[in-house]
Amino acid sequence: MATWPMISVMGQDASHVSCTDEEALRIYQDMVVLRAFDEKTLTLQRQGRVGTFAPSLGQEAAEIASAHALEPMDWIAPSYRDHGALYVHGLPLDQVILFAMGRSGSYAAGVRALPSSIPIATHLLHAVGLAYALRQRAEPQVAMAYFGDGATSEGDFHEALNFAGVWQVPVIFFCQNNGWAISTAVSHQTHSETLAQKAVAYGIEGIRVDGNDALAVYGVVREARERAAAGGGPTLIEAVTYRMGPHTTADDPTRYRPSGELEGHRAQDPLIRLGQYLASRSILSADDQQRMAADSRDRINEAVARVEAMDPVAVEEMFRHVYQVMPNRLARELRDWGAN
Amino acid sequence: MPEKNMVEAIHDTLDLLMAQDESVVMMGEDIGVNGGVFRVTDKMLGKYGAARVIDTPLAESAIVGTALGMAVGGLRPICEIQFLGFLYPALDQLISHVSRIRDRSAGHLGAKMVVRAPYGGGIRAPEQHADSAEAYLAHIPGLKVVVPSSAADAKGILVSAVEDDDPVIILEPIRLYRMGREQVPEELYRVPLGTARVVQEGTDISVIAYGAMVPVAQEAARNLQREQGVSVEVVDVRSLSPLDEETLVASVRKTGRAVIVHEAPLTGGFGAEIMATVSEQAFWWLKAPVQRVTGPDVPFPPYAWEDWYVPSAARVQRVVSQVMAEE
Questions:
Q1: Could you report the predicted ipTM of this complex, rounded to two decimals?
Q2: Regarding beta strands B76-80 and B24-28, do their DSSP bridges make them parallel or antiparallel, or are they unpaired?
Q3: Are A25 and A218 in contact (CB under 8 A)?
Q4: Which of A188, A231, B95, B263 qualifies as a FRET site for B175, CA 20 to 30 Å off?
Q5: Could you give the CA distance from residue A248 to residue A236 in angstroms, rounded to a whole number?
């Protein structure tokens, strides 16, 4: 039986690293932004200024480095925790905050990303369909779906990987195995030793990577992307990471997480690991780190200020985009609503 | 003008749509090599190739879910669900994504896609092949639900659906697929979505139906005219969502009486929506309570019971007579 080693590059011979120093620095910078964004949003949530929110604490390498490995015209199909990847792919932070404020979908015109999917694993099928359209229209891009370990238990996970295998379309399934689906440990999701090995049953590539090693994540996604774009078919990537925070701001992980587990993962904090790696190569100084953190906080505060200065939502917006052309009955409902 | 049955009309329309627009693709179970279990896509595979006439693996959620991705990616997919009773795994995709993507993307993305599904009873099909699921579907904001009752309408509705910017599900009455032939124009034409059709005018009572119940209503109307001199107006709802309230309400205001006919079970059926609309907008014109003729609140039965389950012209006549006797 095949084994599923976890690919890791930081700390290995430098020849394993496919990422340039410049790219690595950009990845680090965006990881700093994501960490600062989550800290800010958690504060805003406690102050009642944004609603329930799913933070990425501990998953910054998987989120950010995977998106850096894509091209701007690739499609991504994210789930609700993937604002880091969306940000890298071009979604303004303002839009992410509006999503957290319950004001809009996490979508911006011109960014090739679907609105974040809430029902688990349902969007993997959309990525497969997008990949089919790319190939049919002879566009040399790929589609990538983001999801977690819990999603691998859903029927749509099976259907998506099966269709992708049969069709051999340019799609990547990027699974962040963060150990927990709210309170359910991954050992209760599957009796498989790994998630990556599920690829075998669909006749597609499966890869297991250290999801807290940003440069390893970048490398495997880049490789899967090149294979897919060249007609080599789909890949399932299991990025092994750890959710250091709660599922959402409405969740209390002390109810289910074994004591001591979190502490064991702190040394694997992806931000610390990439920072140390870059420092060891003398391309990141302590001053740089402080400057990046300060810049990130400023940019996020500016985005929050912009969003909080916006007019309150109007009732009409709730009706406007359900159909391209509003049917008569809905138009009457809208008129009645305004009159009430 | 050639005469066609509904299967031929739909087949020829799909052929025209595939020929004129390369972004149109068809997908479903057994639609390629086999031409579909009802032969609606017969010989399309040879004409347009496997990349546009897609024999999918057997999974309804994936058919509808991947179609949404294709639509966002610039294709115009037409999905065939083999029987409407097999649609249920795909309801999640329809409810959670297909119907919402325009709203969730503030109008930037749309699900320009069509789902076709044969539905309803009357052909002695095996168990669970004869469901009428229209009420679940009409309850989904953002999804258009249409039901042709003639070959000519099937063509015009299909053209409008494929050209529409929003997702449309077409419920094709299995019983009418090969019931008879009628004149169907050769050229492309459109039946606007969201429009009902007065099939025959009358003055005493409106019988409001859709799908395979339209010919049943027409048969009842003929018998009532001949046997009792009752003048029945038959209205084909044709579009459950958006609903053409104006046509339905105008008919009931004119006749002052209404009977609604559908195959699906009574409780929560689409007839309740029509009754509510009539009650809201035509109450003061009514001469008698509105009645429904529907399937009973039981699962669609194995076909030994089918003739009792599906409303018949005789049942419609009986209820119309009761309504006419009120006052």
A1: 0.96
A2: parallel
A3: no
A4: B95
A5: 26
